[in-house]
Amino acid sequence: MSSGTSAGTEALRDDVRALLAGDGGRLADPYPTWNRLREEIPVWKQGDVVILSRHEHVHQLLGDNNILYSRQGTKTSARYERAKREFGPHGSAAFGRVLDQEFHQLVRMDPPDHPRVRRAVQPPFSARNLAREMQDRVSERVDRNLTALAAGGGEADFKKFAYSLPLQVLGDLLGIPIDDLDMVHSWAQKIAENKFNADSEKAAVEADEAYRHLMTYIDVLVARQRASGSETGLVAALLDSENSGAVSHEEAMAMMALMIFAGHETTSNLLAIGLLELLRHPDQWDLLVAEPERVPAAVEELLRFVTPAHFLPYVAKEGREIDGVAVEAGDTVIGVLAAANRDPAVFARPDELDIARSDSRAHVSLGLGPHFCLGAGLARMEATALFGTIARRFPGARPVEADLRWGGRSLRTPLAMPVRLLG
What we know:
Layout: H1 3-20, H2 24-27, H3 31-40, E1 43-46, E2 49-52, H4 55-63, E3 69-70, H5 78-86, H6 89-102, H7 113-121, H8 127-133, H9 135-150, E4 155-157, H10 158-174, H11 181-194, H12 201-228, H13 233-244, H14 249-280, H15 282-290, H16 295-306, E5 311-316, E6 320-322, E7 325-327, E8 332-336, H17 337-340, H18 376-393, E9 398-399, E10 406-407, E11 413-414, E12 418-420
Parallel strand pairs: 2-8
Antiparallel strand pairs: 1-2, 3-5, 4-12, 5-8, 6-7, 9-12, 10-11
Helix pairs in contact: 1-3, 5-6, 6-12, 9-10, 9-18, 10-14, 11-12, 11-14, 12-14, 13-14, 14-16, 14-18, 16-18
């Protein structure tokens, strides 16, 4: 290997490390780095961490039913144990409490706990129940919020809209009063900034405090609904499951926290960045305006193109080789969904946004198999209502030319997103 090639490879590794750590500058356009990683080091092992970026490997990782890979095992992975040793006493204790909270959540469970808890909370998210209970509410929220956003008569920050809409829908689903939503959002944002963190002691301490406030709030919220008999939908299903012994109190409350986080932060990314990309590609926007029946297909393409959560970690249960690279039991295995969703082995012209493409649904943004995203139907419902309504009411919408600032880690998101809503 030439020195130039070696230097280029090391620069790529530095870029990947920076993206995994949430470097704001590199988050502005991470896809060239993810693409290079997939093409040059598709299975990259650094110490006890293995990073997978090809669609084939990420698909296998996400679809594994905790046979070769463990979700729960991530809690005691070498990466997390090292973080607890390197943080100070206060930070280490906070980090441990954050892990305790997150590993009560459904997305971090292995069998037999995962299927047991999933069965308990699945009914409110069936297509029939969502259509009956949420379709009209979502459409009303979209119309009302867009009217308020356009009332200023010019430029508006769509990022605020993209955060408020999913949060309001969750408020409807979980019975959270509208006046409490900004407070709940502030906690969810701190938790999102810490997601999969093993580098920042400050982020761990802030997430621990946010979880403490959020879980106290959820306990009070559920107790109030239980006492008044006003619980419906997901809350009623969780309480029924807790009363029957199907789930523990901790699991029920963790499911509420998961819905507030996962049903809010990831969906807001899809809405905000999805609209940004549509407006940055005027040919695609004009096609959507002219042919609104393409909205559901456009949502799938945006799930692929945007990838609301860029990467997810697991732990290897046993040793094996992947393309000649040794993976040891206990290694953290990170699947880069954003790289898999632009793999030319699966998608034609992967770096092009094309709402008419036929291969969008091969994306891995919503997971696979037993761990397929529980709230996928709700996220698709919100995105379909939003993009369809904007195309109908504001066909002349355009992005405001500005250097966007980006934050997050796995959940890459713009800190503000100015747009002009024009009829």
